[in-house]
Every structure is written in C-alpha cells, then in structure tokens.
Amino acid sequence: MSAIGEDQAIVEIQSGKLVVFDLPYEGVQYELPDFSPGLYRIPVSAIRKAPQGLEDSAVVYVDTGTMFFVDADFRDRFSAIEQRLWEETGDSYEIINAHGAAVEELGVRFGFLFSAGVGSGYDFEGDGAYVLDMSLVERVGGRE
Questions:
Q1: pTM of the entire predicted model
Q2: How many Å separate Cα 40 from the centre of its chain?
Q3: CA–CA separation, 1 and 112 (whole Å)
Q4: Model confidence band, residue 3 (pLDDT cutoffs 50, 70, 90)
Q5: Environment class of residue 64 by beta-carbon count within 10 Å: exposed (0-12), middle (13-18) or buried (19+)?
Q6: Whose CA is closest to 71, among 31, 115, 100, 124?
Q7: Angle in degrees, 0-180, between the axes of helices 99-106 and 75-89, rounded to the nearest 10
Q8: pLDDT at 144
Q9: Strand order in the sheet with 38-43
Q10: Which residue pairs, CB below 8 angstroms and at least 24 apart, start in 88-92?
Q11: 3-state helix/strand/coil string of the chain
C-alpha cells in the first residue's frame, strides 16, 4: 500500500501543515495539532469517506485509488519532481517507483497509500471523496 507498509504512510513534516492529494488534484491542507517537526504516521484507518455537504475545499478527491501526503511547504517542489518524471516517462505515478530518489531530491520524506479495496473494512476503498481524521495521525520520531 505505501512506501512503509501495508496500512500506513510515514511523512516528514517541518511546517506543521500537511497536504493530502491525488494527482493531479491540489488536495487539502491540514494543520497538525500540538505540532513538533519530525516523522508522522498516517494509518489507512485515518482516511474517512467525506460526509455529504462538506465544502469541496475540505474534500480530497481520489480517482486513482492513491493518496499522497507531503509537508505543505514542499508541495510545489513535489509537483515539479512529479512533472519532470511525467515528462521523462509519461507516467506521473513514476514518483512512487522512484520514491527514494524523489525523497532525496525533495528534501523531506513524503508518503502515499493505495486504497485498501472494497470489503477491506477501511473507508478508503478506492476512488471517491475523502477526509483525513487528524486524531489518528501521530508523531513517530525525529527527522531521518
């Protein structure tokens, strides 16, 4: 599901702000409560179906079954890396296969999760509209 394991992503946050998105969408910015710079664990269980009537600006739209997580201050740099990889390979999602090199170029660790699939018991079953339950995002350590 992710660069770290089956049911979680690890992302480095330096700014206190996390952007959650699917390519090519802009995504949603979240503030981390009680923020301290470091590595944060985002479990797939933190991804919830968006409630009806929620403003579009608060909804993460997914149409590839993949969700990305990056420090908001690095979103533009992430997009530039993704765009370059698309130009080189014709596939924006090559950033997943090149995760280690992309992290090195980006300067912070980004994460991603693939949908758990229908019947998995998780809300993140695939394409759809989602929100991130920040109460389940936890700091797991300092910078790698």
A1: 0.92
A2: 11
A3: 8
A4: very low
A5: middle
A6: 31
A7: 140
A8: 57
A9: 8-13, 38-43, 138-141
A10: 92/23, 92/24
A11: CCCCCCCEEEEEECCCEEEEECCCCCCEEEECCCCCCEEEEEEHHHEEECCCCCCHHHCEEECCCEEEEEEHHHHHHHHHHHHHHHHHHCCCCHHHHCHHHHHHHHCCCCEEEECCCCCCCCCCCCCEEEEECHHHCEEEECCC
The yes-or-no verdict on residue 105 having pLDDT over 60 is yes
The whole-angstrom separation of Cα 17 and Cα 30 is 6
User: What contacts 78, CB < 8 A, 6 or more positions away?
Assistant: 68, 70, 95, 102, 106, 110
Structural domain spans, the chain:
8-139
Within a 10 A sphere around the Cβ of 24, how many other Cβ atoms?
13
For residue 31 the two structure tokens come to 């503030």
Question: To the nearest whole percent, how much of the chain has pLDDT over 70?
Answer: 94
Question: Using one digit for the tens of pLDDT, what is the confidence trace for 17-49?
Answer: 999 999 877 899 999 988 999 999 999 999 999
